[in-house]
Amino acid sequence: MKRYFLGFLLLYPVAVLLAQHQHGSQPAQPGDAPAAQTAERGHHAFLEMERQAIERGEGFGMAMPADRSGYPGPKHVLELKEELKLTPEQAAAVGKLFAQTKQKALERGREVLNAEQRLEQMFAEGRSEDELREETYRIASLRAELRWVHLRTHVATRRLLTPQQVHTYLQLRHGSRAHATK
Prior knowledge:
- By secondary structure, the protein is mostly helical.
- The chain folds into two domains: about 1-55; about 60-180.
- The chain contains eight helices and no strands.
- Helix 2 (about 35-55) crosses helix 6 (about 90-125).
């Protein structure tokens, strides 16, 4: 799954650029260049993966800057609890944090997905540019709040770990690419 996600992260910018290049033209057709078809399929697949992750309350890379900088996420800490030598108290605290975050992420995620659906409906209804812009900004704010749910959890998780556990986590998850902050 990790490789699949990283593959999409690498391909997504290409898909977006190709999609932007085609903006205003018809969707990829059977006779179109394979690159255009691949880009469109990749873009749609990525959006579907994001939607599914939001529906499940998952981060889908929203907290990657924190994770790579020494602010571990609770899900991965629990997956690595033996390697990190978590105490029973730490494991319980991280587990509680994970459950609370998932609940908040599910709630905020529903708001994001409902707002996205509302925006589509507004376009279908031919709403004014001002209304569309306002809804777009509202969605951006909801997405920022959803991302913050995940980021603040990484900050809280780090407080539960020792410096050695954070170091071990970074080595296990990111190897030499890790860059912890003090």
